[in-house]
C-alpha cells in the first residue's frame, strides 16, 4: 500500500495525542429550516417532530440510521423578533461511524452526496411545509481553506500560513491537574508538539465562543473554553495539523463529552501584530515616562523661580 493511501486511511481513524486526548473523525452538517413560502407563524415549530421527520427521511430515502442524540435542533423561540428571511430553526447533524470508507476520497464523495440529497428537501410539519438548507461548516472543509490561503498568499506575495487558530477547546482539558482549571502553556505546548516543532504559542480564555449559538440560554460560564494560537516552525507541519484537525471532535479519556471546536488559519498575522502592539505599548510607556520626567523638571524649575521663592535683589546707592 502506498504512503498516500495509508495517510488517507489514517485521517478516517481516531488519532491519539498527548494528555489522554484523541481526535475523533466525524461528519458534521449545519442545518437551517425555512418556511417553503413566506408566512407568519403563530407559534414555534415542534423540535421533536422536526427531528423525527428528518430521521425518518434519512432512514427511508438515504438508508442512513441516525441516533436521535446525533441530531440537534433549536427552534427560533421569539417569532416576533424573527426577520422575514431568518430560519425558524437551526441545528447540527453528526455521523460518527466512518468505518465503511476505505479512503478519504470516498468519504468526501459520500459527504458531498449527503449534502446534495438533504439540501432543499421539504418537511411537512403540522400541516405547514418547510425547506431544509444544509452546509458543511467552514472549519470542516480543508480543501476550501487550502484554496483560500493559496489565493491569499498569491495576492499578498506571501508563503503558505504557518499558524493555526483553535476556538472552543475545553479549558480544563489543557490545564495542569490539581494546580488550576485554567489552560496551561506547558500542557498545551506538549499536546500540539505532536504535530511538529512549535515556534510561538498563545493560550487565552475564550468567553465569546458559543454566545451567538446560545443567545437564548443566558450567559455562558466564564473560562469554559479557551482559544489556542499555534505557530509551527515549518509550513508543512502547519498544513498537516490543519488537515488532521479539520472534520474531527476532541475527546478526553474518561469523559463522554466530544468537544466541537473551530479551526482556521491565521489571516491576520497574530504573533507579528502582537509583537508590534507590545513594541507600541513599550514605546508609548517610554514617551509617557519621558513626558512625566520633563514635566517634573519643569515643575521644579517653576517652583524655584516662583515670585514667593525669588529673593529681591539689593542695590547699593552711592551719594
TrEMBL record:
Q: Where is the composition biased (Polar residues)?
A: 274-285
Q: Which InterPro entries match?
A: AK17A/B, Nucleotide-bd_a/b_plait_sf
Basic and acidic residues bias locations? 286-311
Q: Where is this region: Disordered?
A: 274-319
Show the Pfam families listed in the entry: RBD_AKAP-17A
Q: Which PANTHER family does the entry link to?
A: A-KINASE ANCHOR PROTEIN 17A, B-LYMPHOCYTE ANTIGEN-RELATED
Q: Identify this protein by name.
A: A-kinase anchor protein 17A
